[in-house]
Amino acid sequence: MNIFNRTFFFSVLVFLQTACTQSNEITGQETAIQYPDWSGQWSRIGSLNWEPEGYAVAGPPPLTPEYQARREEFQSQRDQGMLVGDPPANCLPPGMPRVMTMSFPFELVITPNTTYILADWESAVRRIFTDGRDWPDYMLPEFNGYSIGQWHDENDDGVYDMLSVETRAIKGPRSFDSTAVVAHDNNQTVVLEEFRRIDEETLEDKITTIDDALTGPWTVQRRYSHTPFSQDILWVEYVCAEGNRHLNLGDEWYFINKEEGTLEPTRDGQPRMVPVYD
Amino acid sequence: MIEKLLGTVFLSTLLYLFSLEIFAHHSVAIYDAENPLQLTGKVVEWQFTNPHVFILLSVEDDQGKEVTWNLEGSNTSLMLRRGWRPDTLVPGDEIMVRFNPLHSGAPGGNFREVFNPDGTAFDPSSKR
Fold first, then answer.
1. What is the pLDDT confidence band of residue A26, given thresholds at 50, 70 and 90?
2. A80–B56: do the CB atoms touch at under 8 Å?
């Protein structure tokens, strides 16, 4: 091998080594921390009250005097047969944070740029952007809001184990649950979450809600039990408009009698609505 | 391993079923839980829909007139897991239903349990 060839060979070797090193570094950077496997089905543990243990155990919701009075008024109207203070009663979606009570099971789909929460309840989809973006200049308010997340490796084992999420631009009206605990009319709610798989069987979402109907940030820890992926898992479509029978007109609530073509009263003394055609 | 897996699935399913309230979708305030009723009649229609399933039940009133009751039940997700299907009930089936009636007295309610006409428990899988 002459000097030229040796030099050329050495140059090629150095180039390849450098390229491989850079490639390894790039690959190393991309794969240094792995995403967790949270596949399968997750099912709610605990109450449908926003407090998973229920208000009887956890104590009353931390409402401002104005919204506590509103809750009591709603409850009084409910005793008469009206479905006030519970927007999903006539098919509005639960929105954030109530959707995380997860009436029905849900699935987590984790990709580097976005984590998707696919809920059977209302067939709701949450997109949590984890691509490093900042808040956009304008966010169209939506019931599930706009969510930006960040993965963390809390125990430094090379696998992400916590997803923190902030959600803004949440549309109303919304309630925390079906007990007439409603979010503030100004819809300035901000929700902070921390998802952790606290053991093989359990996912925890530590949810802190900041809302002007509350006396301060309200933190709950909702948990979900795991069913590993299998062909036996049931996912059930949910289309609320299909069979909804509850109608709110002005201050009145009615029960829709589709077969008779009438609106049936839900409270004492309320007239039955029968259509009259000219 | 298989036993462990099955145990996990069973436990998760059990936790799910026990943690589910009948009405996940909304409050049941329009129904009178203090004064439940029980009626026997013939199924006019079985609606396997969300947010809630419905039994339309034809019942003869005190004057001998047939009245159709709209009886709202749980949701398809929970009913499916309990063995119910869209064809579990067909028109003409005779059943007994225990339900919480509308406060207003209109012929509607929130059904809690379904029985055979003789009062024995109704088994949805018996129809398949």
1. very low
2. no
What residue in B sits closest to A263 (Cα-Cα)?
Answer: B106
Task: Please count the residues of chain B.
Answer: 128
The per-residue pLDDT for range A124-133, each reduced to its tens digit, is 999 999 999 9
- pLDDT tens for A95-126 read 999 999 999 999 999 999 999 999 999 999 99
Alpha helices by DSSP H, chain A: 3-31, 55-58, 65-79
CA distances from A20 to A5, A6, A14, A26, A31 (A): 22, 21, 10, 10, 16
Q: What is the CA radius of gyration of chain B?
A: 16
Contact between chains at B29 and A82 (C-beta distance less than 8 A) = yes
* Contact between A257 and B108 using a beta-carbon 8 Å cutoff: yes
Sketch the domain layout of chain B as residue ranges: 2-127
CB of A168 within 8 Å of any CB in chain B? no
The pLDDT of residue B29 is 74
How far apart are alpha carbons A81 and A153 in whole angstroms? 50
Best interface-test mutation with A: which of B16, B32, B58, B79 has the largest number of A CBs within 10 A?
A: B16
DSSP state of A87: G
Considering the four listed CATH numbers 2.40.50.140, 2.60.40.10, 3.30.70.100, 3.40.640.10, the one that applies to the domain covering B2-127 is 2.40.50.140
Neighbours of A130 (CB within 10 A): 22
Q: Which secondary-structure segment (H or E) carries A110?
A: strand A106-110
Neighbours of B80 (CB within 10 A): 17
The closest alpha carbon to A34, from A150, A127, A151, A118, belongs to A151
For residues B55-61, give the mean pLDDT: 96
Q: ipTM value of the model?
A: 0.73
| DSSP annotation string for A3-15 | HHHHHHHHHHHHH
Distance from CA of B67 to the nearest CA of A (A): 11
For B24, the closest of A46, A48, A272 (CB atoms) is A48
CB pairs under 8 A between A and B: 142
Residue A226: its chain B contacts at CB < 8 A?
8, 12
Q: pLDDT tens digits, residue range A50-92?
A: 999 999 999 999 999 999 999 999 999 988 888 899 999 889 9
